[in-house]
Amino acid sequence: MTYLSFSDMTIRRPRPLRAAAVAALLCTVAACSPVSDSEGGSPSGGNQSAGQDSFGSPADPSAVKDGGQLVIALSAEPDALDPTLSRSLYSRYVFQAMCQKLYDVDEKAQVVPQLATALPTVSGDGKTVTIPLRQDAKFADGTAFDAAAVKTTIERHLTNARSARKSELGPVEAVDTPDAHTVVIRLKQPFAPLVGALADRAGMILSPKAVQSLGDDFASAPVCVGPFKFAKRVPQNSIDVVKDPNFYDASKVHLDGISWRILTDASIRAANLRSGDAQVADSVSTQDVASLQQDSALTVLQSQSLGYQGLTFNIGNVDGVGTTPKPINRPIAQNAKVRQAFEHAIDRKALVQAVFNGIPAVACSPISPGSPFSTPEAQACPAHDPAKAKQLLAEAGVQTPYQVTMLASNTPDTLRLAQALQAMVKDGGFDLKINPVEYSSLLDEQDRGNFELLQLGWSGRIDPDANITNFVGTGGSQNVSGYSNAQLDAALTQARQSNDLEERKKLYGQAVTILQQDDALIYLYRQRNLTAFSNKIQGLQVFPDGVIRAAFAGFTK
Question: pTM above the 0.90 mark?
């Protein structure tokens, strides 16, 4: 198996990464299958029974009309509409329509060029990455997209004090611009996950004019290259974009605009979809899937997520994410046995069956079982054992029931999960209190370190490093736990730089073993991407990265 690595090039002249090799890696990393009848997938959409992947199809230009406003019922409010700062899946939905990237991911989990014109060429030592750029693109403010804009954006990602992208970009030493349509990224060491990072927010290119004029207020009026451009945002209510006439492929854009309406209750999203007040509903509740699939006026898209849902303990985040970890005077922060006890108190299989009708897959690790990096060590799963949990609490010298407060979003599905956990861990000696908050407030509280235990997930990325290092590596830009383990850091760093699949597998197995010993983050399950839409719409797609692709959709004639 060939996989994304910049250190496996033995020749001295640059050569392009092979698309087929990239595709093979990404599909296995994503735990997805290339779409085929034999695997039960269908690229054409349609209502699918649970477990079958359905990604949707491109719009037929002859069957859709130009014009109209698409309304998407969104399950949570996006955070900052600034690719440098954003941490939310929901912001990625909006970015997909207005902020294109150097690379994208398709329905087969292949990396494909977007603002780049080809996959990178890489030097023999893996430290120089050359990317050719489009010559026909403009930003929404009318300024030209060029190599200088890429350099400005990447440097902003690396240097902004609040950047969530710095860890994703790894050991970037410099960004050179030999001409207006070529970017050369120079690395201190080979960095296997780079292309995967550039296929997400780290690869979204910002207008230098807007960056200069808005600075840290870029999110108030974001300007990128995209089919649509930002129009307005009403906090806690909606985000609107309108068609951008500057877009290089504007003839393929059928809609006049897209409006995301914030509706946190899944039943209300489903009701809006059925009534026609919205044409798309994201994050369909597992309680509603069957009835929506039976509705002939609707289509449900679903696929296995690249990510996970989990529980994060605050063990050192005192002064905010990214700051030096400090001791926290709580047994659950100081003693791994208390956290291990909490994990032994959880019955994952019972949890996903009772709360989500068995639709998600149990997860005990950030490494998918279908990944080429998976090993028995990476898939080891601590057993549900309430007696063991009580024993560990006794060894830790804490009184039972041990009280712990969990911060969680206030959506109905999350509250059902929280309540099920509350009942479940009681048998293991825990008294779990639930503190529900609105999603954007939850993100703020986690970054500040204002939590004891946090329930939150990650939508997942195509390279396993992006699902691990940023969250548990020392100083990671999304390490809200304040967790630090030098042994883990060493394993993850070696895995980032290695050119050998077997070595990377071994290192990720070691990393999972360390993670399960420390239990700063407990992995629970892998959700399915569930999106429903009206059959009055064509061209809506959701790929394994979980992002709703609506930019080239249109209303049927």
Answer: no
